[in-house]
Amino acid sequence: EFDILWTTALLVAAPSIEMLHIEVWEHTCDVGEARPASYHDRRNPRWEMHLDSSSENRLLKELEFAGFKSLEQQFTFIRYMLEQSPNLQKIVLRDEEQCDDCDALKVPRPSRFPRKEDEQEMVVKRIRDGMFSPEIIFYEATFMR
């Protein structure tokens, strides 16, 4: 499993970023036997990162997270971004888009994206949990055709 915390190094390397778009995916077409033979095996490097509280990004205003699934590591990442970005005004959480290749496999599309109002409220509470409150927006996926 790939750990997204390594991307926080981007904020240290590029302190002028105002909008950060992160996309994670787990496509059916990219897993196991469903993967076409022409696809190369993907390597999953292990990253260990010390979460350094001394490097704030004061310019980051918007974080967009595509492929949000309410996973613990995603909450950890978003809360770290909140801690490091005191001027963050908006967090956009997007569902994972299903691609044409996944669609062609006709496999049910499991999703852990918070669709119901009570699920979204729980996510907002987990993200904010005593911290300042940027706007949090949820977007469900539209299927690619």
UniProtKB/TrEMBL annotation:
Species this chain originates from: Aegilops tauschii subsp. strangulata (Goatgrass)
Domain of life per record: Eukaryota
Protein's recorded name: FBD domain-containing protein
